[in-house]
Structures are given as structure tokens and as C-alpha cells.
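User: I'm putting together a teaching handout on how sequence relates to shape, and I'd like one worked example. Could you take Cytochrome P450 from Streptacidiphilus jiangxiensis, show the sequence you're using, and then write out its predicted structure as C-alpha cells right after it?

Assistant: Happy to. First the sequence, then the C-alpha cells directly below it.
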Amino acid sequence: MTTAQHPPYRLDVHGTDQHGENAALRERGPVTQVELPGGLSAWAVTGHEELQTLLGDPRVGKNPGNWRALQEGQVPEGWPLLGMITIPGMTSADGEDHRRLRSLVSQGFTPRRVEALRPHVEAVVAELLAHLERLAPGPVDLREHYAYPLPMRVIGELLGIPEEMRDELHTHSGVLVRSSATPQESVAARNGMVALLGRVAAERREAAAAGSPGDDMTSALIAAREADDRLSEEEVVGTMMLMFIAGHATTLNLVTNAVRALSAFPEQRGAAVAGTVPWSAVVEETLRYDSPVAHFPMRFALDDIEIGGVVIRRGEGILASYAAAGRDPRRHEDAERFDTSRDPKRHLALGHGLHFCLGAPLARLEAEVALRELYGRFPGLEAVGETTPIASFVSNSVQSLPVVLKG
């Protein structure tokens, strides 16, 4: 049992070759120290078994008040990812606070409510396919014209965010999860999101006071606050931020990554198009093979804990390395191969334990419908040209995805 095996591995803040970097991290062991921007250190948990253990360990928390580096003033304002780590909401709360916040949001994502959204998701997909028809045969950026507008429309409408605000919010949220962001960009993005979503919350509160409450989730959060004082104003806006970011960015990357994988493995595309394997299997294998999130920051050791033969000291930060665990060869045979015939849910890409992604059913629904209908119309669709990774070790996808739309 050791506290450190190697000098910290400096993560590439630009995410240039995440899967190559993940392989190098796994070579160092399933739990290894990494260097974050600004010379800060943390632990990356890259092994599947070890990550599952971490995600279910009650000695690990999410409240950044438990991060020793933050307590000791080592993390400056504007540090990349600080704006995301400290959003007041479920992903930065522990214990009773986490249960309180999660119980309110979970009411909007019950299986019944998510399934009730299916006709709307299908209608949005049909609109987007009609748009692609006008752009065919391309090349066309599928990320911009298809993978992005679908989840953005759905989560924007669920939260009651006006359409004219959504692109700006998307830009801000992209900066918040970008490990290569400058301090000025990070602070501006956090402030920009708080201002825009605060305006939405204020409008919904005014409408409720005037006797015309909305039926969106922002109005529901405000109603809960007004009725029971269960949410502070900061928590309302923080929860909106979390729902907006998680509600579109994960699905955006998931659909993009699935199309990339199906282009790289045409036999798998053929099986899905032919109906030999269900589209749900394509979604699950994409989550394993090319997780939308690479290293999710951050968890904190609440006590000295031992994972994978390594001791993580109290107060140290921990990254949940979903993309690395998805290709752990100890868990997945021929892990570098995209294979839709695998056991469909043997991955951790949507979390595990108390912080399992509440929006997972909606993300799965959106991705499955999007892929089924896309390939139903363009069964020979092919990705073409060069792609550039998103400049972050948090998000795992590409900035654009040019494709040729073949019938």
C-alpha cells in the first residue's frame, strides 16, 4: 500500500489524445496521481472496479469545502473548472443537502415523465432530419446541425429557457468544463450563466406571483422554495446550471461519438441498420467505448482511504475517469473494439451510487431516437475529414463532425 507510485502525470488540458493518455494512465495503475492546471495535484481513478468502488464509498464527498487545496488558498479565482466544481447544487453537495436537492429534481425525471417526452423528442428529430435533407449530401457538420439542437431544444423547454438565450448559455457552459480556459474566460462564463439563468428565474417568479405559474422545471424549483423554503436563491440558479449543462452536453457528445464509432466500425453500423442489434445497444456501447465525459472533477476524500492499493489522504481531490474505465482491459475483453454485442450496461459512464446521473433515462431516449431515425433516413452516412478534439480533459468528443449523408 502506497501513497504515490510515480510523479504526478500532467494531464493534457487540451485533450489532444484522451484515449492514448488514458492508456498511459492505466499503465501506471488503476489509481494514479495527476497534475492539474496550475500545478495542483489530484488522483485519477481509471480502473473500472476501482472507480465503481470509489463512486459508492461514503468516505468520498462532493462538497468542495472538503478540498484541502481550496481550504489552503492554493486554488485561485478563475482556476479552470472551479466554476463547475463549486456550482451550488447536487453535484457539490453531500448528505442531507444532496438528498434534499436530488429529491426535488428527481420528480422531473421519473420513468413515466421521461417516456411521456418521447413523442416530443421524435417530433424534434423529424424537424432536424428535414433540415438535414436540405443540406444533403454534404459534407455537413452533424454536431452543429443535429447532435446539438436536439438536446438543447429538449432541456431548454424543460427549464423554460427562452430560445434566444440558449446558444449563449451553451457557450458559457462549454467554457466551464474546459480545462484549457483562461482565468478571465472562466470567471466571465460563470458570471454570464448566473446572470442569464437568474433572469429566467426572476421572470418565472414574477409570473407565479401574478397568478400564472409556468409548467417548466424552473417554476417547479421556485414553487418548492416558496412553499417550503427548501431551496435558496443560489441553489435555484445553481440547480438550473447543472441541469442545463448535464442536460445537453452529455447527449450532444454521446450522439456525436456514436456516429464517429459507427463510421469507424462499418460492420457494427450495418448490424444496427439491419436491426440485428437494437439501437439501445449502440447507445450503451458508445457510453462504454467513448464516454461523453473523460475525467469528471471532482470528489474529495473525507478520510484516508485505500483504493486499488493506493492511499488517498483526507482532503485530496479525485477525478472519476469514466473514459479510461470504459476501456479497462481487465473489465472489457478487446476493450479498444466497438462491439454492440457486449453485455449492454457494463459501464460507469453515467455514474454509480448516490450521484448516478438523474437525466440518464432522458439522455438514453434522446440518443436512441436520434440514431435510429438518422440512420433510417441516411443508412450509408459516413464521417469524413479531420476532426479536432474539444480542448478539455473533462469533455470527450470533437468540436465538429463533418459527414456525408448517404441514403
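A couple of points you could highlight for students: The CA atoms of residues 122 and 369 lie 7 Å apart. DSSP finds 17 helices and eleven strands in the chain.
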